[in-house]
């Protein structure tokens, strides 16, 4: 249990689910052939880490941030601009990391000191304002960021799909640079999630939960709440920026739609709430459910919309159109905040008779 | 504390006029920077008109927060709904909109605006009952629920009207400008200023001169005490929420006419803008909201003229500056 920081899933069904998800992700290159499956798996890994870092804020400190995609975007753009400007080599990757991560942390520090000092309610609004300004900035500074088109770039030699590491006739599978990149994404995401698990189960994490439950009382106990909240904000920003780096490396592209847009922020919110706030494990479950639905349910909606319009039903074709899938997610979101505030993880823990599951909310 | 004799009049409440002077000072400082007085006048008129429209949209949000501690992230949805509903009236009567007669134009515009207000007000009722009532008193869930509401409203608008931008031309008689010497002030901006000012005065009168306003102000300051005195503050709140939603709808119509187009994404952009205004003004303060709206509009107009590149982040800079000066906004009316 050392690796889980003494915080196991605490539910048999949940443990089984997590093991299945992780094994499936790890074996994706061999089990599910095709580029789409690998893309989906990589996206699940990146988002699981991103959502887990958001859970540190939302679930453990109870502060709603709308700037999380900004940090994600900073990571993506840092690596993309470095690799675009310096060419596909490892020095560029290092430069992107060395510039991107501190930048995200500093910005998080500034926002935290500025808005967490006053009132918790300001934090949500100020992060929303800052994030939208950053989004406009990124699309306007086109000499640096490529504007609306974003930046496409080449990866270093080792990570390219053309690089064959182990040829096919050895195992029956070809291990190429693409698969190596996938495992890089998988391993770093897993490490970050384990690190976050460590953070929330440390004394520091306990203080965060105390602040969530009653900030005034935590302050009365002698904890400098602004320090703790800002620190958590910076940590979350660092993980988000790292997830952004992974995402950009996987896509070989960074642009406003894939790394900055407000809809990604909504996706993250949905994943946290569906998975279960304040559990970290919820991030893995939420990201998996959401991204599978996003990639495979949308085509189902297209079929339903087609059928509805052929049957001559009014309104339904428009409502079921694949582009309107956010509508249904929005409804699902409201319903899950209302009916399942503890998300899938909370439900499973409760079903398993774990008494401490409800205590966290 | 000085002793008061029995016959002395009560001490007048201290008036805090520094925030009122701020926009005036900003405007005056800009005269030498802009150089040409006629450009300055045009820009100032533009700022005032834009500020009034933003104020109309933001006023409901700040009151709702002040009164009930409810942060409605879906406020922008009412703006977009208002604008879309107005197209329902304006599109069939396009002919009388294009007729060059002020009365004929107004005969279409006024019902359109009223219908928008009615629909967004009614939507406010639904939102309050369905989304806010169940999570009353829980900030986190309020933010999540209302954000969900915003997504659903926006997507429903897309589903009903389609994703394209709908043009919304200005009525013929409101096109063009009044020319005074070498100063040109767009006619529509004058109308927007008049409506905004009328609404500001109406809100101030209701808040300061009626019993209803007294209860609302008392509720902002101390909700429990008003409840303890036997007033049903929930009903009061519902009324304020619906009024705020209706005003947001009206603001949406005015904004759509100002931009001459309607699109569901306007709710996102304007949400950010009105949040900044509400934060600058101090949550719950109508006067602060009014000044904040004018300041934001001034920064947008003057800034856009002087340093166009800065216009992207100017709102954030303004907010940072104001919060450095007064960490809880221009007027801190709530104890929260």
From TrEMBL, chain B:
Transmembrane spans: 17-34, 40-65, 77-97, 103-131, 143-166, 186-207, 236-258, 270-299, 306-325
Subcellular location: Cell membrane
Topological relation to the membrane, as annotated: Multi-pass membrane protein
InterPro entries, per the entry: ABC_transp_permease, BCAA_transport_permease
Record's keyword terms, sorted: Amino-acid transport, Cell membrane, Membrane, Transmembrane, Transmembrane helix, Transport
GO biological process, one term: amino acid transport
Superkingdom of origin organism: Bacteria
Location (main, coarse): membrane
Family: Belongs to the binding-protein-dependent transport system permease family. LivHM subfamily.
Protein's recorded name: Branched-chain amino acid ABC transporter permease
Source organism per UniProt: Bradyrhizobium cajani
